[in-house]
Design goal:
Enolase-like, domain 1; TIM Barrel; 10 helices; alpha/beta; globular; 8-stranded parallel beta sheet
């Protein structure tokens, strides 16, 4: 029986709101690709991101354009030649991995030649707000060992100090989402050092981050928006110490695994990150966790409801996906 690709848009309400320097959202809109062969089904989820010129409509259309190719037998190894890196390719790549696992009866870590994934500690994200609200949020999350703090530019020294007061014992990552500027970066770096921050993610806009090469980086700096796939690695060496690998940026697990291997060979630390999506979006990224100094797969923890079956979270510990979910 020919394989069949179907595409669906799903929406998950966020618990409260998720706010970063570029805006605020109250729901996660995801696109799911499902590939069936008549007996088995594989699926993958992606989160379109406007920062990269994506919308739910454009990603769904990019996936639907591959339906005939999938029906004719198109497979994962040829996907990179047909689709550019991004959310659409991620959903289809992960669906094809899942289909292969279901068809062969082998878990994906075996198919990929990787060790079996185990439980890991994920960061938990605190949304951007005023110092008072962020201190309150930090106090409520102070039992979590690793917090990721969204910052926004002006007023960030006060925000990070407030978070540290609220969560005196948690390890901290900060993520400015490109909001810092040349005139604020020194004061912000000093505030992060005073708060004992362990990693700073994407402080300056992609394409305007040459200034990072001029600093003695006492806190490691992690590239997010400045890196998508392996093609961007060579440009980062003088500016960044780590990279954030997200499957929606890289265009799927296939590219993400190669990116992790090459990044480690170049001496970069690795962070495995996510967009705000359901457990289906997080599941493939668990295969990268053994590479990572930092794991940030808290998307389902930010939702008012997740899909079933789901990943198991115990506090900030996330467990590998059950095969009924993915892989």
């Amino acid at each position: 029986m020919p394989r069949r690709l179907t595409v669906a848009v799903e929406r998950f309400p966020i618990a409260g709101a998720f706010t970063i320097s570029r805006g605020s959202r109250t729901e996660a809109a995801v696109v799911v690709a499902t590939v069936e062969d008549g007996e088995h089904r594989g699926w993958g989820e992606c989160v379109p991101y406007a920062r990269y010129g994506e919308s739910v409509e454009s990603v769904a259309a990019a996936l639907e354009a591959q339906a005939a190719w999938i029906a004719e037998g198109g497979g994962r190894f040829d996907l990179a030649g047909r689709m550019k890196p991004g959310a659409a390719r991620n959903a289809l790549d992960c669906a094809l991995w899942d289909l292969e696992a279901k068809r062969t009866g082998k878990p994906i870590h075996e198919l990929a030649g990787l060790p079996a994934p185990g439980p890991v500690t994920t960061a938990y994200t605190l949304s951007l707000g005023d110092p008072e609200s962020m201190e309150t949020a930090a106090r409520a999350a102070a039992h979590r060992p690793l917090l990721k703090v969204k910052l926004g530019g002006e007023g960030d020294p006060e925000r990070i100090a407030a978070v540290r007061r609220g969560a005196p014992d948690s390890r901290l990552i900060v993520d400015a989402n490109e909001a810092w500027r040349a005139e604020t970066i020194r004061d912000n770096l000093m505030a992060c050092a005073a708060a004992g921050v362990g990693l700073i993610e994407q402080p300056l806009p992609a394409g305007e981050d040459d200034l990072l090469a001029e600093f003695e980086r006492t806190i490691p700096i992690c590239a997010d928006e400045s890196l998508h796939d392996r093609a961007g690695l060579d440009a980062l060496a003088a500016r960044y110490d780590a990279i954030n690998i997200k499957l929606d940026k890289a265009g799927g697990l296939t590219e993400a695994l190669k990116l992790a291997h090459e990044a480690r060979a170049r001496g970069f630390e690795i962070m495995v990150g996510c967009m705000v999506g359901s457990s289906l979006a997080m599941a493939p990224a668990m295969l990268l966790a053994h590479h990572a100094a930092y794991v940030d797969l808290d998307g389902p923890l930010l939702l008012a409801r997740d899909r079933e079956p789901a990943l198991r979270y115990e506090g900030s510990t996330v467990y590998p996906p059950p095969p009924e979910l993915w892989g």
